[in-house]
Protein 1
Amino acid sequence: MARIIGGIGTSHVPTIAMAFDKGRQKDPDWQPLFKGYEPVAKWLAEKKPDVLFFCFNDHATTFFFDHYPTFALGVAEEYAIADEGLGIRKIPPLKGHAGLARHIAKSLVADEFDLTIFQDLPLDHGLHSPLTMMWPTKPDWPGAVIPLVVNVLQHPLPTPRRCFKLGKAIRKAIEAYPEDLKVAMVGTGGLSHQMIGERAGFNDEAWDLEFLELIDRDPERLAEMTIEEFMRRGGNEGAEVIMWLIMRGALDERAKKVHQNYYLPMTTAMAVALFE
Amino acid sequence: MSYVFDLERSAKGLRLNRFLHSLTDAKRRKLFLENPEEAMKDLSDQEKDMVRRLDWKAMQDYGASFFCLEKLARAKGVSNPQMVAHFRGESLEEFLKTRRVPGAR
């Protein structure tokens, strides 16, 4: 049977991909970020999950507001890399796991999560800016991804509670898949940042550190919060951390945080955390 | 003023956001850079004017999604810290002084 071996929470800031692509690993401005991902990359290299289940958001790249899904699950064998305005990153196309993804789709709909299903669409930095920090691209990706695209752009957003419940339903679906697969959950986004309005540039390190504690010890507290509270405490765009709750909901309740890194160089607090 | 991108703002900004989003297509981007008036022909005069002036704040107030504005910024070589500084009413240099690692961009 398939099983979930752990989870990763990570920011998906586009400049992470830029720093990676420009080879800034040793640059003192970026080294604290790269160092923070090393234990996660090592864990993945040792545990060798077959699939990373990625909870992330598209940035009005592939999905546009003429029809905007709340939760959209990718069920394809392969995903192209999206052009976000600067051309396409020079990384291999992403491998999907259609069998497991289709099974999850059926299981979630049976569990009353009425998802949008997509295939043959390119994916943006929301997924692959953190991915290149954790998985090698050469000679090819070592495994497959299943993308779950979450609306955190156009309000109304799904509630934190709904995200947490969806995570639990994803766990149930994965554990019922007959093939012997190792799956790691990835929840992306945040931490505190606001890109718009007079409060653009807002951060709150105290809230970020509290969030990193609560997602480990008391995710139920986070699930009780409203989107408005998340926006007030973490900035308008910082509310996207609700996607970590999907990841956390899919983990064993006894899972513990075993690594954490926090770096706030510019406009967005960049964090990574590992749970097993 | 609330900057939450809700269904009302999304409806108001739809035509402008559609244009901004179209810049993810390399052919549309090339057309915009070489012949901006042709690329913007479906926009209203007010929308064209805001795009020509790269007035990030005016476009935001009008109903542009930040994530659609990013597509125009990338096409024109403008960084996110430059946009954020503009929203705050600061120069890039003033904004960078408020950051912990001004070189990380």
Protein 2
Amino acid sequence: MDTSTGLTALAQAAFWITVGFTATGAVIAVFPRNILHNVLGLALALAGVAGLYLCLGSFFIAMMQLLIYVGAICIAIVFAIMLSRPLHLETPQRGVPKVAMALTASAVFFVAITSVTLRTEWTPPIGRGTDYSIETLGHMLLTRYELVFELISLVLLVAIIGAVVTAGFSRRSSS
Amino acid sequence: MNNLNTYLIISAFLFSLGLLGVLQRRNLIGMLISIELMLNAANLNFMAFNRFLSPEPFVGQIIALFIMGLAAAEAAIGLSIILALFRKLHSINIERAQKLKG
Amino acid sequence: MEVFSRDPVLLATILGTSLPFLSMATILIFTRHYPMLSSRISVSAIGFSLVSAIFLLVKLACAPGPIRYETGWLSSGLLHVPFGYFLDPLSLLMLTIVAAVAFLVQVYSLGYMAGDPGYSRYYAFQSLFAWAMMNMVIASSMLQLFIFWELVGLASYLLIGFYYEKQSASQAGKKAFVMTRVGDVGFFLGLIILTIGYGNLGISDLNTAASTHVLSQNLITLSALLIFCGVVGKSAQFPLLTWLPDAMEGPTPVSALLHSATMVAAGVYVFSRIFPFFSASPDAMAVALAIGTVTMLLASTMAMVTFDLKQVWAYSTISQLGLMVMALAAGGYFAGVYHLTTHAGFKALLFLCSGIFIHQYHTNDMRVIGKQGGRKLLIPMTCIIVGALALSGVFPLSGFFSKEAVLGALAENSNPIWLLAGLFGAFLTAYYSFRLIFFILCPQGGIEEKHPVDEMDAHVKQEHAEEHHGYLFWAMAIPVMILSALTLVLGFVEHPLENFMAGGIPTHHMQGVQHAAEQAHGGGHSWLLIAGVSAGLLGIALAWFEFGRKKAARVGFLGRFPTIWKLFERRWFMDDFFRKTLDRFVYAGLTRIFTMNDRRIIDGGIDGICFFTEAGGRLFSFLQSGMLQYNLLIMVLAAGVAILFFLV
């Protein structure tokens, strides 16, 4: 019993630490004016979210989160920063009214979403499966959700071509 | 404290922070970062619902995977647009891009 | 294809009536720049139409009843408009006339129009004209008929204004178009009233319904009068008659076609087409009778004073059309149709002959033609005399028989005034036609061998001398001879024709008609025969006395009354009246109001709307900052507030 309460407490602590990482990362990602700090904050927040996924029992998705977001997207953003050299250019001043309005809007939105969350009676269904295994996930991806799977790969292909075309044509027209 | 509402509120917090970033950053790349945050918030929602409410506990995971794919696509496109815009305006300040001003 | 081989009648109908359209399309699209090819295409198309029309006539001569190929066109609720072909004796007879006259005129035009820059265009329009008229003739519903009726109007507009570079020609085309349009408004209103009141525009249905008293009397009278407005416009009846003399601006063969078988005949044809319908309304018939009489007399008086060759025939057409309307309105169905038939023949003949004179001497003035030796052109001179005799109703030409039939129908009427008017009209007709003949035949002071130097220089004369015996001359002469042969023969087929026509309309009408016809010829009215012929001969004699004999004054009795002469010459001041009405009333009054409405209210309204839109746009354009983030901010704020609102 002791061990179990100890473990539970440990798990609780780990959970809250993860939440703390996530929140800190998100704040760093949004507020500082140095763009590189933002990227690092984003990486922290994404890693925190990956930890939350672990808490939710999905090891595979957590790994994917680390792989795709932290590994790929953050790197891509860093590349974009280097290509567009924003560090050498003006760092625009913040207009106070704009920040105030943005704060109001997001606060209203946060309150709205939170109150929706708290006011709703979430009732879990009666017969719930407990199958979180990666095998089932892979099986489902290639059977029931095969079409969506293929579609996603198509979307990715189009996105890549589109990105190449957009970036390439703009280079030609500007030079 | 490991229940649905906690996750939902965390996700709402992430989403609102992302929203704040999108609304007030002038740096386009900063906006993109904020958008990634918002997408993650949505993903977290899906995962939480999958964990606590879904009758089949893999549907949410699959959707989360798809959203990650879409996010990758979105990031690629967004970054290329930023590059194009940068070449055109020699700046990535969003407030410079106001050709549609009435 | 199998359907066609099983039913050659349908095949002939469709082919015969649509080939001219195909030829028009071909000419306009492909062969505009190959005039000879265009004319060949057009002539062979109309030739085929003629062959199929004759085939249909022969095939259906012994058919028990009318043949209808119909399919529903508009059908909704109480409204039913069929679409298709309606082949009965009347339409077949008319189809044959149209095809024959159009064919002859087109052959004639090979000579008359040779070398004209618009040769291909001319043949395209001719084909269009023939196509529209033939389809109008065999239409099975009034709406279909109306469509082709308008197409006939369009084609005649195009042909009258054929020399569009000439101001007077384009004016005449416009005048013809607009004046017939005035009548067509009435026609269309009549059709609308029929549609509302009865809901079925099929021709045979209409006739049956009217004669079996399904329709109310008021409805019939009203719609019949309105439809008669269309007849008035198209057939140039009083008061819409002045467009027809002006229509002379077109090429002469066009006038021949216009005056004999197509344009003006369309009005009379419609009258006879729905004759049972008209005859169900005595009031409408009385109005038609009066209008026909007034038209006939007015036009005859106008014809007595003009020196223009073609205008004489134009006025005579109007007066003969008036005579046909009189005959029909007096209940003489067969008489009217028969006169239409014979008139188509001899009027085409007269115009084509005049065309040869005009082509030869380059003038329309009968005095000049006579002076320059018009009587030396033997073929047209003979033929024009044949035509004029037929027009005057002299035995044994076709005009005699049909005019007797008309007079017989008029004699049926209890009021003798119509008969007297008809006889007087016959006298005037003979007078003015032979006035023309004698002007050409016996010119004052003999023929001047050396005609004064006018626009014909030696070179042109040379050319004409060659033409005289060449292919071009015969292209003109042969149709004329065929037509005069027809004029000679057509009178003797009256009884077969009458029996043939008897299949056309319901029997109880036919009895009356036969009765009238018998009375006109066989029974009891021999005095009428004598009266009719003597009226004609009297007219000829008077014309000879005043214009023909050696020492004649060549002025005419009207010359002594300059006021009356002026009255007749100015067409009873009808054109001036229309002009004044237009200027005073329409242009000065209505048009000004409409213009003001247009400028102030419509334009001003639109300007105002534009102004307010623009001002509003300027006012609110500050919302469009072009800033992505503000737009997004508003959106998010609104979404959040909306969620909160619905939550609370």
